Automatic annotation (TrEMBL):
InterPro entries: AGR/TXD, Thioredoxin-like_sf, Thioredoxin_domain. The lineage of its organism: Bacteria, Pseudomonadati, Bacteroidota, Flavobacteriia, Flavobacteriales. PANTHER family: ANTERIOR GRADIENT PROTEIN-RELATED, THIOREDOXIN DOMAIN-CONTAINING PROTEIN. Keywords: Signal. The keyword Nucleotide-binding does not apply. PROSITE patterns: THIOREDOXIN_2. The keyword Signal applies. Residues 1-19 form the signal peptide. This is Thioredoxin-like protein. Pfam families: Thioredoxin_7.
Length: 156
């Protein structure tokens, strides 16, 4: 009986120690950047995007991806259809309706547009001057993400 309780306790303890991705708001990332400059990783997604959900449930659950993001970047998850205004670098970005029950957040548009259009998922990595270092507009698995993060971490 003691052995079973110990095994359950050990399992629960190990589960709580599993790495978790630190998610920041842009305001938090901006503040943290002043104390410890790191690139900002912005994951642009929507609630209806199945590939976005796949990245959330696989790529961003991978222990090596989590460690690379937590150690070298400020991770920001940005819903492209968020209706709340967001202040970033002294500029207020707002939601822009584009029709009945559709629209896009100006910040998602600014950070996620590639060749005049935006697709989901998209992620952009920004340097300390908010220059986009890397922008990928497609599902990215952990195997592909890891070398990208390692390379981008060198631009610190």
């Amino acid at each position: 009986m003691k052995k079973n309780i110990f095994t359950i306790f050990l399992f629960l303890f190990a589960f709580t120690l599993s790495a978790q991705l630190k998610n920041h708001t842009l305001a938090e990332a901006e503040k943290l950047e002043q104390q410890d400059p790191k690139p900002v990783f912005v994951f642009i997604h929507t609630s209806w995007c199945k590939y976005c959900k796949m990245m959330e449930n696989s790529t961003f659950k991978n222990p090596e991806v989590i460690q690379l993001l937590n150690d070298n970047f400020y991770f920001v998850s940005l819903d492209a259809e968020n209706k709340a205004p967001i202040t970033f670098k002294n500029h207020i970005f707002k939601y822009k309706p584009k029709g009945k029950n559709t629209g896009i957040h100006e910040l998602a548009e600014a950070l996620g547009t590639v060749d005049g259009s935006i697709t989901y998922p998209t992620f952009s990595i920004l340097d300390k001057n908010n220059t986009i270092l890397l922008q990928i507009s497609e599902y990215t698995d952990a195997k592909t993400m890891i070398p990208l993060l390692k390379e981008a971490a060198n631009f610190r």
